[in-house]
TrEMBL record:
Name recorded for this polypeptide: Peptidase M4
Annotated spans, Disordered: 598-617
Species of provenance: Rhizobium aethiopicum
Entries under SUPFAM superfamilies matching the protein: Metalloproteases ('zincins'), catalytic domain
Length: 690
């Protein structure tokens, strides 16, 4: 045995980064917080750095230069927490993107309770998928004012550009590197992580899809600010504990915004500075803001503001006692700097609130429909996911979210109540009961309906048993990554340790589990299928309405007499709640696909045809529907069902997608051409971020 094998590896690696971006480190009054050291989980690294999750490739095509890769295992770098922050050192740029990206991955793994996986490569004309072990990061990929995640390349591409402005914040000719902005790195890494969970969220079928991608990436970057104690205590002290005041904590990518002529940070969740008076004004909720906003970044900013407002509500509640003690009961602090001890305690409360909100926001993506996400769907996901993990809500996080979303005019379509319990996604049993009792057959009395309900539930339980008895199922579930939650501390601020399991095996097992579930749902169980929003054949639609004869839609992809469906993904989730117990569940996504035509007359012609449409005919766009299921892996009970707004044969929902694509909802100009480009774009974020 080599002596090196006897040396225990450290749990973390310390690396220096810019806490916000280089412009903050260059300010005299903020010099103490501009550069910080953070801990990332220890892993064996090759020069690059190249690890289990990330591969940094530093090629600069515009300059025709390949920069030497940084070796973070070098003794000198280990001793001094890596390279010192520098705008002119490419090796520090490599270190910066690695450190921030790994921090972001850690937050996802802790919230979702599983090993992070990137979206696989897919064959353009076939169903085959290929495992992607590492996300590639190119710190100097573009000489452009842009940075984006490439779903096609499975890579983050960061640009740099010369400053053309001359003012107190900018010097002409100097370079701005997007790879040195903490917020831009976290934002783009979040795009990649979200794509690994929901690849169909790249298809803009309503105004909220791209806006959600942008908002969610901003939310992660924003609340990651609160995980850096030095910067947090400084900003708490400067604002005297008032997080509604202007501070760096609510701003994103300040250097990029100033250099590109925006006059301030790229986005601000708290407020904006009036360009005429230079007075900073907090953002007030506007219940009609969504109705007036279509551009994805501006629309996404509304969701960010709603989430941040909910965070502020809980933070104020948790810190009110500290302010009363410090102000001798008045709640109004005296003029001047606040005591350092008070600043430290307020920072602690802010960090705990922010950590919990960040975990809520990430965890909720497992509770979203597989396609066509809306802000209202995300609110239901937030409330349901938090209820499942922490049934009691003594600090009122869920009420704060519902109140804030209501103030910004965000609500699920078709909901009759905005109470917390009404927003919870239902179980399969609830949906089957509703299906049978809301659509009784002719001449059927209550006893017949109860008998039919019991028969449907018994059939569903029999299907559970068929899966549990499958040897492949028992092998796959026992091999799944079930150890992460056990090592995830219940405390809000303790870091998660990365797993040492084989990520390829986890991905491969999930693909094989998808086949098991496909066989499960392919069995003849029409009541269950329609309760889940899956349409299989003509007779199945009779369950939903006994008095209406459905019309088969040739535009739906079919296999003989049945509509095709896809078990899109199977994921595990292992989470530990506040009470200390751990929950394990499976997240299963099922989708169906239909050809959509931008010309409504052509759509009617195709659907009225008696001739089957060849599989190779794609149409102008895809209309997809389906559901996400939360399943107990031990009992196979379907605890939660998250359905899309319509089923695959729903003409009204298809028309809604068509109207969005042809109504100029994406970009001005030729709406038909933009719709085709956006639905089939291989680089949607390059277009979106330009």
């Amino acid at each position: 045995m080599d002596n090196k094998d006897l040396i225990q590896k450290p749990l973390s690696r310390r690396l220096r980064i810019f806490s916000f971006d280089p412009s903050i480190a260059a300010r005299f009054d903020l010099a103490g917080i501009g550069e910080i050291s953070i801990s990332v989980p220890w892993e064996d690294l090759q020069p690059g750095p190249v690890g289990e999750y990330i591969e940094v490739v530093d090629i600069d095509p515009a300059s025709e230069v390949i920069y030497a890769p940084v070796d973070l295992n070098d003794t000198w770098l280990l001793a001094q927490d890596g390279h010192a922050p520098s705008e002119g050192n490419p090796q520090f740029h490599q270190q910066m993107v690695y450190a921030v990206a790994m921090t972001t991955i850690g937050h996802f793994q802790q919230a979702l309770g599983r090993t992070a996986l990137w979206s696989p490569h897919r064959e353009p004309t076939g169903p085959k998928k290929y495992f992607v072990r590492r996300l590639r990061i190119y710190p100097h990929a573009l000489r452009d004012r842009n940075a984006y995640y490439s779903p096609d390349k499975k890579a983050l591409l960061f640009g740099y550009f010369p400053v053309g402005r001359k003012d107190k914040d900018n010097t002409p000719g100097t370079l701005v590197h997007t790879c040195l902005s903490h917020d831009i790195i976290a934002h783009e890494t979040t795009h990649a992580l979200l794509d690994g969970v929901h690849p169909r969220f790249n298809e803009p079928v309503n105004p909220d899809v791209f806006a959600f991608h942008e908002a969610f990436a901003d939310i992660v970057a924003l609340f990651q600010h609160f995980s850096y104690p030095t910067a947090l205590r400084d900003q708490i002290a400067r604002t005297r504990g008032d997080l509604e005041a202007e501070s760096l904590l609510g701003q994103l990518a300040q250097q990029f915004g100033l250099a590109s002529g925006r006059g301030g940070s790229l986005r601000d969740a708290l407020g904006t500075r009036d360009p005429k008076t230079n007075v900073w004004r907090p953002t007030e909720p506007d219940v009609r803001a969504l109705e007036k906003t279509a551009e994805p970044h501006a629309r996404g900013a509304i969701l960010v503001a709603a989430v941040f407002r909910a965070f502020l509500t809980v933070y104020k509640s948790r810190s009110r006692d500290l302010l009363r003690i410090a102000s001798e009961g008045t709640g109004v602090l005296r003029a001047g700097d606040i005591h350092p001890d008070l600043a430290a305690r307020l920072a602690e409360e802010a960090a705990r609130c922010a950590a919990y909100v960040l975990q809520m926001c990430i965890r909720a993506i497992d509770y979203c429909p597989p396609v066509g996400i809306t802000f209202g769907d995300y609110l239901r996901a937030l409330v349901t996911a938090d209820t499942d993990l922490n049934p009691e809500d003594p600090l009122g996080y869920r009420l704060a979210f519902v109140e804030s979303f209501r103030a910004w005019g965000i609500h699920p379509r078709g909901m009759r109540s905005m109470s917390v319990e009404s927003l919870l996604w239902p179980s399969a049993k609830d949906l089957i009961t509703e299906l049978i009792f809301s659509n009784p057959l002719k001449d059927e009395d209550s006893k017949d309906r109860i008998a039919r309900l019991n028969q449907a539930l018994q059939s569903m339980n029999a299907k559970y048993e068929s899966v549990r008895s499958d040897e492949r199922w028992n092998q796959k579930t026992s091999d799944q990554d079930m150890s992460l939650a056990a090592r995830t501390a219940p405390a809000d601020l303790e870091p998660v340790h990365f797993d040492d399991t084989d990520r390829y095996k986890i991905w491969r097992d999930a693909e094989e589990m998808s086949q098991i579930f496909w066989k499960w749902f392919d069995d003849d169980s029409q009541v269950l299928a329609h309760a889940l929003g899956i349409v299989r054949n003509n007779n199945a639609s009779l369950i939903r309405s006994a008095n209406v004869t459905p019309q088969r839609k040739p535009t739906v992809y079919q296999d003989g007499n049945d509509y095709k469906f896809e078990v899109h993904s199977v994921r595990t989730a292992n989470r530990r709640g506040r009470q200390g117990w751990t929950t394990s569940e499976l997240v299963v996504e099922i989708t169906q696909r239909r050809r959509g035509y931008l010309d409504e007359a052509k759509q009617h012609e195709k659907d009225a045809s008696s001739t089957p449409i060849p599989d190779k005919e794609r149409g102008d766009f895809y209309y997809r529907s389906g559901c996400t299921l939360l399943i107990n892996p031990r009992t196979m009970e379907i605890r939660r069902v998250i359905r899309t707004a319509g089923t695959i044969d729903d003409d009204q929902e298809l028309a809604r997608v068509r109207n969005f694509l042809t109504g100029g909802g994406l970009e001005p100009g030729n709406a038909f051409e933009m719709a085709r480009n956006a639905m089939r774009a291989r680089e949607p974020f390059a277009m979106l971020h330009r």
